[in-house]
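pls design
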């Protein structure tokens, strides 16, 4: 008789690898966007000034 993990371990491993890949892509994208977002909200870029004027 096989256990739960004998039957389902390969699917768990596949899901784990898929999640790892998705998380790596998401982290890379956040790393690309973070400096721009910080510049905008700091008001250094014209877009940031417009956003800050709407908030204040």
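designed seq:
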């Amino acid at each position: 008789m096989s256990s739960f993990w004998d039957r389902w371990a390969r699917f768990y491993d596949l899901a784990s690898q898929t999640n790892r890949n998705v998380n790596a892509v998401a982290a890379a994208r956040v790393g690309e966007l973070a400096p721009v977002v910080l510049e905008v909200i700091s008001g250094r870029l014209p877009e940031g000034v417009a956003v800050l004027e709407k908030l204040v």
